[in-house]
Structures are given as structure tokens and as C-alpha cells.
Amino acid sequence: KQEVTQIPAALSVPEGENLVLNCSFTDSAIYNLQWFRQDPGKGLTSLLLIQSSQREQTSGRLNASLDKSSGRSTLYIAASQPGDSATYLCAVGGSEKLVFGKGTKLTVNP
Amino acid sequence: DAEITQSPRHKITETGRQVTLACHQTWNHNNMFWYRQDLGHGLRLIHYSYGVQDTNKGEVSDGYSVSRSNTEDLPLTLESAASSQTSVYFCASSESTSGRAYEQYFGPGTRLTVT
């Protein structure tokens, strides 16, 4: 059974700092990995999708990497801003279904 | 613009009542999913569908049912609501191609309280 772990559960950083969020998974037989952002009381917004054949994806200040063999993914956020404050969720795709981690709650302080 | 909507956004019901949560997507996606989100558990898959007339059980399907009569809708029914089903429910959809998983798009969620 696939298990997805995100460490740390919460992170507080000053504005402008570069930061890395971690995601690990137990079964390397995945189709893709997706990073989401969730604001309080809101739905999930997809940030980046990495197919199993890819090593990384970039969107603006965000860069996500995937190492299937070690069961790890990282989300790098450059030059963090207070507007980046949210919970970030990692989800691993085995066939069509996603298995989610519990998320990392990020707070960026002005 | 294509979107995925859920209704109602908030619902309070009593134990034992039947409740149906609606999910409607205009992406024309074959795949649709229902998740629940609880503190300490994250998002867990309840039911999913790969197309019209297709439904499948997820990780936490007991006490829930779905039906898929068209591409756009996947209603989630709680047959007899229990306090343990108090949660936030999310619907999602994605394209489908054999051997490749596509990005999932999520609705805004329904907050259900069972008293």
C-alpha cells in the first residue's frame, strides 16, 4: 500500500527566503506526482505535475523534482512571499488514483 | 472556462438522514473522484469513476455510494449519515488515457456536519 509522508508538518520562514518542502513515498511504481496548494477553507490548486519519466518541472518561482528510485520529491520555492503562505500537499499517482501526504503548512512572515 | 462545482458548500444534517452531495464538471473528463479531508488523516479516496456507469470503491467507501449516469456528474450519497462522516468533501476530475495519469482538478469542497 502506497504511503506518502511530508516533513516538516509546519514551517515558518521570513520573507525572501528560498525553501524546500519534502515528500517521500514507499512504492516507486508511480505514474506521476502532483504538488497542490490549499488555502484555509478552500479547495486544492494544482501547482506542478511531474510524470514518472520526468526529473523536474518548473513554474515561475516553483521547481519540483522527482527521484523515483529513492522515493522522494522536493518542492523548491524561490524568494518566498507572504502570499505563499498555505498548506502544500504532495500526491502520488498510481494509475489514475492519487495518494496524498498530510501536507506542510507554510507561513511566510513579512 | 471549464470548471468543477460542488453543492451545497455547507450542509448540516442529523444522524440517520440520507444526504447527497453534488459534483458537476464541465471539463468533459472521464475520470471523477470523491475524497474526504480530516485533520490528522489528510485526503482519503472514497469512490471513483472512470466513465459512465462505472463506479469503484476507494479507501474509505463504507457508508457512501455513487452513481454515474452521465459524464458531467458524480453525486455522492451518504445512506444514513453518522457523526464520523462529519468532514470536508472534495470532488475531482481528470482526463484518462491508458497507461498515463493526468492532472486532477478539484472542486471547492463541501463542509458537512452531522449532528
Question: What's the SSE blueprint?
Answer:
The complex is a heterodimer of chains A (110) and B (115).
Chain A: E1 4-7, E2 10-14, E3 19-25, E4 32-38, E5 44-51, E6 56-59, E7 62-67, E8 72-77, E9 86-94, E10 97-100, E11 104-109
Parallel strand pairs in A: 2-11
Antiparallel strand pairs in A: 1-3, 3-8, 4-5, 4-9, 6-7, 7-8, 9-10, 9-11
Chain B: E1 4-7, E2 10-13, E3 19-25, E4 31-38, E5 42-51, E6 54-57, E7 64-66, E8 76-78, E9 87-94, E10 105-106, E11 110-114
Please provide a written account of the structure:
The complex is a heterodimer of chains A (110) and B (115). Chain A is built from no helices and eleven strands. Chain A is mostly beta strands and 110 residues long. In chain A, a hairpin with a 4-residue loop joins strand 7 (62-67) and strand 8. Chain B is an all-beta fold. Chain B contains no helices and eleven strands. The model of chain B has no long low-confidence stretch (mean pLDDT 92). Chain A binds chain B through residues 31-32, 34, 36, 42-46, 49, 51, 89, 91, 93-103, and chain B through 31, 33, 35, 40-45, 48, 50, 58, 90, 92, 94, 96, 100-109.
Structural key phrases:
heterodimer, A: 110 residues, mainly beta, six-stranded mixed β-sheet, five-stranded antiparallel β-sheet, 0% helix, B: 115 residues, four-stranded antiparallel β-sheet, globular
**Mean model confidence by pLDDT of chain A:** 93
Major beta sheet summary of chain A: 6 strands, mixed
| Main sheet attributes: strand count, strand direction, barrel closure of chain B | 7 strands, mixed
Spell the H/E element sequence of chain A: EEEEEEEEEEE
Rounded to the nearest angstrom, the distance between the terminal CA atoms of chain B is 37 Å
Structural class of chain A: mainly beta
C-alpha Rg of chain A (nearest Å): 13 Å
Order of helices and strands of chain B: EEEEEEEEEEE
Helix content of chain B: under 10%
Structural class of chain B comes to mainly beta
